[in-house]
Amino acid sequence: MEFTLQGYIFVITFVLVFLLLLYRRHRIKTNQRRLAFIDGFQFPDNVKIKVQEKYNHLTDSDLALVEKGLKEWFYISFYAKGKAASMPSQVVDVAWHEFILFTKMYQGFCDSAFGYFLHHTPSEAMKSQKSAQKGIKLTWKIACTRENISPSTPKKLPVLFGIDARLKIPDGFKYSLNCDGPRSQGYCATHIGCTSTPSCFGGDSDSGSSGCSSCGGGGD
């Protein structure tokens, strides 16, 4: 049996499409497994202990919220796909730093959650009340999308942007929805905007979630 040129092209195309579908299926399953791992992970008790040593007014329920915030940060880091997202919370940053001190556990966590080592970078607020860095913008957009909040017209703050004020962290970053208020109310969250970085999830349709390429829509 002899193949024509068209026959060879058809076979090659079929094989390539089949391999592409297998690859996409593998990525989807891998991403689902990584997210499930983050969701079910238990942090060492010492993380909460060290956070409470620094902020001794925090209650057990407050510390549970900090751990929730830390998991939320890891979800955001997952969806950032290696892009430089910025940590917007001081108290969650402290928890992250303490977790990293468990070096072998943290390395294993990163391998399972991301497939690479997630390096620690200091927590970061906006440059001014009305000027946001690129990393904060990326974090804001992913966080808003995850919590079904409009990035441009939010009616509430995402967990990571509201936790420092909620827990009354003395050196924390305070973000406010009231952009007409005094500076003492903190940084204006609405000014973070949705003007750069075309997709919250890096354009990866295999992530299992949609991006937020425009400022409008959604909102909670």
Furnish the topology, listing elements before pairings.
Layout: H1 5-40, H2 45-54, H3 60-80, H4 90-100, H5 103-113, H6 134-146, H7 159-166, E1 175-176, E2 187-188
Helix pairs in contact: 2-4, 3-4, 3-6
What features would you describe in this structure?
With 220 residues, the chain is mainly alpha-helical. It has one domain (42-207). The chain contains 7 helices and 2 strands; from the N terminus they run αααααααββ. Helix 2 crosses helix 4. The longest helix has 36 residues, at 5-40. The protein is elongated, with a radius of gyration of 21 Å. The chain has helices at 5-40, 45-54, 60-80, 90-100, 103-113, 134-146, 159-166; strands spanning 175-176, 187-188.
Quick structural gist:
The chain is mainly alpha-helical. The chain has helices at 5-40, 45-54, 60-80, 90-100, 103-113, 134-146, 159-166, and strands at 175-176, 187-188.
List the domain count as a whole number: 1
Strand order of the largest sheet: 1-2
Largest sheet: 2 strands, parallel
Radius of gyration: 21 Å
Please provide the ordered H/E string of secondary-structure elements. HHHHHHHEE
User: What structural class should be given to the helix and strand makeup?
Assistant: mainly alpha
Distance between the termini: 63 Å
Uncertain segments are 194-220
Average pLDDT for all residues: 82
Proportion of residues in helical segments:
40-55%
Strand content: under 5%
Per DSSP, the total helix count is 7
List the quaternary state of the chains: single chain
Shape: elongated
**Tally of extended strands?**
2
